[in-house]
Amino acid sequence: MTGTPVLEAVGLHRTYGQTEVLKGVDFSVDKGQVKALLGPSGSGKSTILRLMALLEHPDSGDILLNGKQLGVTSTSDGRSRRLPERKLAVQRRDIGMVFQRFNLFAHLDVLHNVTLALTEVSGIRKAAAVDQATAMLERVGMADRLHHYPGELSGGQQQRVAIARALVLNPTVMLFDEPTSALDPELVGEVLEVMEALADSGMTMVVVTHEARFARRVADEVMLFDSGTIVEVAPPEEFFDNPQHDRTRQFLAKLH
């Protein structure tokens, strides 16, 4: 890959209480690239996604989208300060995020859950929003559930709606935080199938996952996070078949 990364983190530090969760992490993903992040619980994987999605603010370090710094603005004395929420919301449009839990509005049907992002965030008129949302729900295989409520759907169906809700804003990059971890095993495949189709279409993606087979098949690069640092980065074949670090070998042995 060449050129400016689509999404980049430079020197990210994040501490919660006495625990240093990220220890100066550098990370980037290029246009059309799929990166899979693996690692034990508490290693910092979800934290870096939340920082890149502008849901949290790093203690130090920068987030850049297509080379432009996000989340902060410069003050008259040359220092930086966090942007107000309304400006952060505008920047978040370019970064779609899908969580472990689906976070759908229980009182809204499927169609309204997806159109809400368009009408409230992008200011699109309702008729146009309905057309766009319907097309996106068809893309994830949910066109026959437009007027169902989340409580009437399986976990896999709810997660596909959540993916449609993020995609409908036409983000530059999609972040997935263990999107199948809350699903029953028999429902995992339907969500991974949607994600694989997204990757095949050229979507830039960062995926925190424990699904090793998915990472091997779909990712361009696989990374191991541990104790707030990146231990190893390699193409899937090298990462899984010939890891260079003892920590990676230990993790993979437990994963399998």
From TrEMBL:
The cellular location(s) given in this protein's UniProt record come to: Cell membrane
> What membrane topology does the annotation report for this chain?
Peripheral membrane protein
Q: Which GO terms describe its molecular function?
A: ABC-type amino acid transporter activity; ATP binding; ATP hydrolysis activity
**Classification via InterPro entries:** AAA+_ATPase (IPR003593), ABC_ATPase_HisP-typ (IPR030679), ABC_transporter-like_ATP-bd (IPR003439), ABC_transporter-like_CS (IPR017871), MetN_ABC_transporter-like (IPR050086), P-loop_NTPase (IPR027417)
Q: What is its main location?
A: membrane
The protein's UniProt keywords, in alphabetical order, are: Amino-acid transport, ATP-binding, Cell membrane, Membrane, Nucleotide-binding, Transport
* Domain ABC transporter positions: 7-252
Record's GO cellular component terms = plasma membrane
- Tell me which family the UniProt entry assigns to this protein: Belongs to the ABC transporter superfamily.
Instruction: State the name under which the record lists this protein.
Output: Arginine ABC transporter ATP-binding protein
